[in-house]
Amino acid sequence: MQRSHWNLLVAAGILVGALGCSAPAPSDTSTTPKPGSETAKKDIKITLIAKSSTNPVFLYARDGAEAAAKELGEKNGVKITIDWQTPPTEDGQVQAQKIAQAVNEGSNAIIISCSDAAKVTGAINDAADKGVPVMTFDSDAPDSKRFAFYGTDDAACGAQVLNEVLTLVPPSLNRPYNVAILAGNQNAPNLQKRVKGVKDEAAKHPNIKIVDVFYHPETPQDAAAAVLQAMKTRPEIDAWAMVGGWPLFTKTLLTDLDPNKVKVVAVDALPLQLPYVEKGIAPVLLAQPTYKWGYISVEKVVDKVLLNKPVETINKMDLVRVTKDNLGDWAKQLQEWGFTDIDPKYLEMAKK
Question: Is pTM, for the whole model, over 0.70?
Answer without folding.
Answer: yes
